[in-house]
Amino acid sequence: MRRVRAADMTDPMALVPPDLLERVVRGWRDMSTRLVQMGRDRPEGDRGVFVNPAAERGSTVLFSSLEAMDRAGHGRYGPELIYGAMGSPIQHRLEAVIAEIEGGTHAQVVPSGLAACTLPLLAYLQAGDHCLLSDSVYGPTRRFADRVLRRFGVDVTYFPPMATETELQALVRPDTRLVFAESPGSHSFEVQDIPMLGRLAARAGARLVVDNTWGIGLFNPFAHGAHVSVQALTKYAAGHSDTIIGAVTVASDADWRPLRDTAIQAGQTAGPDDCWLTLRGLRTMGARLERQAATALGLALWLQSRPEVHRVLHPALPSCPGHEYWARDFSGASSLFGVVFDAGFTTADMTAMIDGLQHFGIGASWGGYESLVLPTTGGISRSCLSVTGAGPACRLHVGLEAGGLLVDDLARGLDGMSAARAGRGTD
Fold first, then answer.
1. What is the residue-wise DSSP string for 314-383?
2. What is the per-residue DSSP string for 59-77?
3. pLDDT tens-digit profile of 318-343?
4. Residue 405, SS3?
5. What mean pLDDT is predicted for residues 30-56?
6. Which three-class secondary structure string do you get for 27-58?
7. Cα–Cα separations (whole angstroms), residue 179 to 91, 210, 213, 225, 408
8. Would you say 340 and 400 are in contact if contact means Cβ atoms under 8 Å apart?
9. How far is CA 10 from CA 310, 317, 356, 408, in A?
10. d(CA 371, CA 360)
11. 209: closest CA among 176, 240, 174, 241?
12. Which residue of 20, 45, 186, 382 is surrounded by the most CB atoms within 10 Å?
């Protein structure tokens, strides 16, 4: 592909082949109607209903008798109203919607995405167990494994996210009880072969947990061998960068009961207002992401053509490790991807470029309506070689801004990087 100067391109969509664009956005288009309709009340007879369900707030639940209270307590594995810390009506409604989106049978909503990552580790592991954890997982998940699981007597082994089945089988032990994958990987975007990991876990008698936050609505982990799916609903589901919330979904009672028991015992439930905001955000997720995913693809292709860029880590592009698994298993793509710059640039060059951007906010998280940029160089803990290691790297989240403005913003920054390097005489 020819190199593109800033003056050559104002609309990133001009670079996108129609068939690839359709492949990236069709999942969101297919989901839009379902997202509008799920988890809502319908008018019955002459009784009208609000379009959006109410957020009921409360702690104490009153019962007509001790017998009724006892009966409710035994119904904790269902959407029973027992006590505020065990779930509210709006939480149960959100859980039903998430379970349907993920393709599971039960979901537990928790106070954050990190809580969603750690809850299955607490629910399914005990002292003396061994856990296989992808080296590309979300940093706080890794910290929890290193600082909490190990302290409780759980042994953790990190595996290369693109390891083959043979290589992974060599890491499995008789005490391996859980395999934890994140696909695409946090910051480095490797798409993992989840069906292969499912086979590996099945042979070991272990559970496969998948952090499916990037692939919400686009990838059904249970259809590909997973036992548990993790969602940081803070991201695309809530969609407006104004709440912290997560969910864990399963597809069998055998996986649900220990998960639900652990959530209750650890007090892991979300507040009704956060659940209500997330349920509202889900209504527009399909429309938002159809637009955001398209713009992100255009930006990824444009960046791929720039001389400053060594590699673009977008799962829909062949330059991303595991692209073939994305093409096989996903119905579309999201709006988050990585960029690795040429090794001739320094981290200071990239920092100056990021600081000068006008339409990309600088901040953690992603999934809202606004574009964000975050350096990944220096911020990733890895046991294995990372695909982001060739040069300075950053992560881009593409929001709802006009694609041309985002291109112009990045073009000014990249031109400045090139000028800085030329001034040093390192071209």
1. -TTSTTSTTHHHHHHH-S---SEEEEEE-TTS-HHHHHHHHHT-SSSEE-S---SSS-EEEE-TTS---S
2. S----SSHHHHHHHHTTTT
3. 999 999 999 999 999 999 999 999 99
4. helix
5. 90
6. HHHHHHHHHHHCCCCCCECCECCCCCCCCCCC
7. 28, 8, 17, 12, 43
8. no
9. 22, 21, 19, 7
10. 5
11. 176
12. 186
Cβ(317)–Cβ(323) below 8 Å:
yes
Instruction: State how beta strands 176-182 and 228-231 pair.
Output: unpaired
Q: Which of 245, 275, 231, 229 is nearest to 57 (CA)?
A: 275
Under the banding of pLDDT at 50, 70 and 90, the label for residue 9 is low
Going by C-alpha positions, the residue among 354, 257, 271, 309 that lies closest to residue 3 is: 309
Structure-derived torsion over alpha carbons of residues 56, 62, 65, 70, reported in degrees to the nearest 10: 70
DSSP string, 84-104: GGG--HHHHHHHHHHHHHHT-
Per-residue pLDDT, averaged over 227-240, amounts to 97
The C-alpha atoms of residue 197 and residue 228 are separated, in whole angstroms, by 13
Instruction: Give 7-32+285-425's CATH code, choosing from 3.90.1150.10, 3.60.9.10, 1.10.1740.10, 3.40.50.1970.
Output: 3.90.1150.10
% the chain with pLDDT above 90: 83
DSSP codes of every residue in 227-278: SEEEE-TTTTTT-SS----EEEEESSHHHHHHHHHHHHHTT----HHHHHHH
Mean local confidence (pLDDT), 396-404: 97
For residues 374 and 331, is the Cβ–Cβ distance under 8 A?
no
pLDDT in tens, 160-178: 999 999 999 999 999 999 9
How many Å apart are CA 97 and CA 426, to the nearest integer?
54
Position 427 scores a pLDDT of 56
Q: Please give the average per-residue pLDDT across 114-127, as a whole number.
A: 98
Examine the pLDDT at 39 and tell me if it is beyond 80: yes
- Closest Cα to residue 133, out of 151, 153, 159, 115? 159
- Which sequence spans correspond to the domains of the chain? 7-32+285-425, 34-281
Q: Which of 368, 295, 293, 365 is nearest to 331 (CA)?
A: 293
- In single-letter form, the type of residue at position 348 comes to A
Q: Who's near 141: CB < 8 A, 6+ residues apart?
A: 114, 117, 118, 133, 180, 182, 211
Q: Which CATH number is correct for 34-281, 3.40.640.10, 3.90.1150.200, 2.40.128.120, 3.30.70.20?
A: 3.40.640.10
Q: Would 7-32+285-425 and 34-281 be classified into the same CATH topology?
A: no
